[in-house]
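Quick log. Single chain, no ligands specified.
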Amino acid sequence: MHEMSVAVAMIERLEELVRQYGAERVTDVTVSIGAYSGIDAEALKLCFPVAAKGTHADDARLIIESVPLTLHCRSCDGLCRVDSPVPLCLWCHGADLEVVDGTELKIKSMEVI
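-> predicted structure:
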């Protein structure tokens, strides 16, 4: 389960930001997780409080925003969101695709006091 190492890395980054801005503690953390990021959101929810224990983010609420896989088709210039494990353009059924969105994992925001 690599979600624990992801949670630890997130906490390390939050700790840097808390020190940088002189906050006392983190109350909420919003992360964006792409559908094709390889991150299991439920596992991350379980790992986050363990990684946050004893830090400025102890007891912080983790808010997860799911980002669908969005592809640009080079054949027809279409833009589509795909849920299929074998992505094809929804417009022309072509496979000449480039990823626009949906592979990311990023801290979108945090609330501090």
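The longest strand covers residues 26-34.
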